[in-house]
Amino acid sequence: MFKKAIATIGFLLLVIACIPLQAQDIRVKASVNKDRILIGEHIVLQLEAEVPAGSDLKWFRTDSIPSFEYVDRDPVDTTSSVSGNLYRQMLIITSFDSGSLVIPRMSLTVNNSRYLTDSINIEVGYSPVEANQPYHDIKDIIDVPEVEPMYINYIIAVATILAIAALIWYLRRRKTSKQGDAAPSVTISPFEKAMAALSAMKGYDHLDAPGLKNYYIRINDILRDYFRERNLVNSPDSSNEKLVVAVKQRLDTETVYRLAQSLRLADAVKFAKYLPDGQETHKVYDDIHSTIRIVEESYLQEEALKRQEAIRQEQLKQNKN
Description:
Number of helices: 7
Number of domains: 2
Helix content: 40-55%
Radius of gyration: 30 Å
């Protein structure tokens, strides 16, 4: 009887001793290639799990991560060895929310047991890109501020006014030809106004330093004014960060990333005296031009849906009466 009890106790101790050994064979890990990014910049998130062969595995849930958006996902890759299986998945994520963000702990289930990765802190900032050429902070009291020639401002302002005036004349003439001698009231939509203003900016991408600064201020204001008139932002002096956040739901991830990059470049020109080349300036123009077009299409679709819903509600109301 005593020997049987000793054998039973020994067996239980052996089972208990094997449990931590088995747990040590299971390893989960989440890692990133960088923990500090600019808004819209990509992060490579790698998920790993090393488990014994033959284990029942339920992979991490990667449907969403708070404050982050997926850019791309690789399938889960499996590597088998004598000791077990190594599973690995690469995820490309980004964020358009600035501040101190956290990739939360992610859970994986092996043989009905839950294992958690460590959380990862990510700093997302919105600051001008670092230029390859040296620049001086505008707050540096040693720098002598340059006197900007006023003719640059006059040229841009006059070109913008002429473009808008030409658009008004064209619309007035077209409506007059349809309605005879009646004098129609011409209203220009925010989109038409923005397109006319952008057209006036073409050809001014090869300027000196003061001219480039005025160019970027003006093209930034065109985008901001359009967003404000479409009620996407409230303040007339909204920061570029708020402009990106205001439209990120209306654009695909790649377009939002390009817009964020272009606005960062604009900030670098305005505040850090960065001098972009003609190709960079042309790209900024194209990004802002395409952004306004895409946002306008989204706005018109929303308005059409609202009108359809209003008609439907009116019909339901009439049917009830």
